[in-house]
Amino acid sequence: MRIWSLHPKYLDSKGLVALWRETLLAKHVLEGTTKGYRNHPQLHRFKTTNHPVNHINSYLSTILEEAKQRGYHFDESKIGSSMDAKFIPVTTGQLVYEQNHLLGKLRVRDLAKYHMLNETIDIEVHPLFNLVEGDVEDWEIQ
Description:
globular, mainly alpha, 47% helix
């Protein structure tokens, strides 16, 4: 499971669909409606908020908007309310780590997206996150 800190606009079509599916699974974990992935490190930052499901819904909303812009038809009914979700901090080191991780995937799957991301100087984070200085997050498996 990969819940990207960077904006979903950088993902290729395969990555965007996978992100939608995996984040819906994460939502089920946070709602307590599934037994798998309960201790997955990618969920740590959501679990530390006051309203984890609210935050994951907010995260999903941005994925949905990106999908709509690309002409995809994701099921909007799968997202619940995301009342004023507060920013979750993400470190600059984590963003660089994820950029490099995604570049490796895009190099194989989508050269146009690879070149776009590789040439981007200021990587945009997912709107739920607030960029702060720091190394790769402790929860990241390297």
